[in-house]
Specification:
The protein is mostly helical. It has helices at residues 17-79, 82-88, 131-213; strands at 95-105, 108-118. It has a single domain, classed as Orthogonal Bundle (Helix Hairpins).
Length: 214
């Protein structure tokens, strides 16, 4: 989302010294807030890009492993009857419970997946099955942890991306709207006060001349 620099607009305030002091305080706070948000945005982007690289490598590894598993199962389908294959896999003996916890990245809640594993991937006897089925299941079992890690990292990337967008909007609102408007209003009040001081000084000098003549 791109922000164009908006036209400066004065805030609707009275041009008094008290208001000038208040606006200067607001400007200082807004500048500090802008810097903190900009630093947060930069750090979020750094972590986001690191995660993107990790996820890219992990996804390639998972896809390659799954492709090998699917090839083996396709080969098994030609070596074993569909009924034998379904019968062998009909009673899975491995149970995986997935627990989801929250962890914090720069005060952003992201998921952490924890698994509890019971049983073994081998859920059949060896009499009526092919050895390639054993290899396929072992490879599928091995890639499962990577798949869970990939899901965790991709969800984290999505949440970081949403926070980056929100932070960028706030940074842009400060940089292109609030800060210029505060600066413009401060400049306007300062000029008005200077004009009033010059007007008061001129009136005092005129009054002094009148008193002097009498």
């Amino acid at each position: 989302m791109m922000f164009r620099r908006a036209a400066k607009m004065r805030l609707n305030v009275n041009p008094t010294r008290m208001e000038l002091l208040n606006l200067k305080k607001r400007l200082g706070i807004a500048k500090r807030g802008h810097k903190l948000l900009k630093d947060k945005q930069d750090e979020l982007m750094r972590r986001f890009l690191l995660l993107i690289k990790d996820v890219k490598d992990l996804r390639l590894r998972v896809e390659a492993s799954l492709q090998e598993v699917f090839k083996k199962f396709a080969f098994l389908s030609s070596m074993m009857s569909e009924e034998s294959l379904e019968e062998a896999l009909a009673m899975p003996s491995k149970e995986i419970n997935l627990k989801i916890h929250d962890k914090s990245i720069m005060n952003i809640k992201v998921p952490h997946y924890e698994t509890e594993v019971k049983g073994d991937i081998m859920c059949y006897g060896y009499g009526d099955t092919n050895g390639d089925l054993d290899l396929s299941l072992y490879q599928l079992d091995k890639v499962l942890s990577d798949m869970i890690m990939l899901a965790e990292k991709e969800k984290t990337i999505m949440l970081l991306a949403e926070e980056i967008i929100r932070t960028r909007r706030r940074v842009n609102a400060l940089e292109y709207i609030l800060l210029p408007n505060l600066e413009e209003t401060i400049k306007y009040i300062w000029m008005r006060l200077s004009e009033m001081e010059r007007g008061n000084l001129a009136r005092l000098m005129k009054l002094k001349d009148i008193i002097r003549k009498h």
